Amino acid sequence: MDNLNGSLNPWMIPLTLGGAALAGFVTGKMFGDRRRGAKTILKLVTNDFKKEGPLAGSWIDYQPIPFQRFAYKTTAYRGGLRRQEDDQLVNY
């Protein structure tokens, strides 16, 4: 209680920033690189399409391929869906 004049401890800001940086680093390591398998991705996409109507078929390659869009590089799965729309089979 010696610090009654309202000034901050000189260590308060660096310790707060360091703690926030450490928490962000740990959170990034825990949740940052969550890759999903091909089967999980196909299930998520087919469930979303089934909300709009029945599917005639779906497929996915289980081997990921390199994918680049501008400067962003990642891996992706190739796949497709087929369903009936206006008496025609449409591929996605």
UniProtKB/TrEMBL annotation:
<keyword id="KW-0812">Transmembrane</keyword>
<feature type="transmembrane region" description="Helical">
    <location>
        <begin position="12"/>
        <end position="32"/>
    </location>
</feature>
<protein>
    <submittedName>
        <fullName>Uncharacterized protein</fullName>
    </submittedName>
</protein>
<keyword id="KW-1133">Transmembrane helix</keyword>
<keyword id="KW-0472">Membrane</keyword>
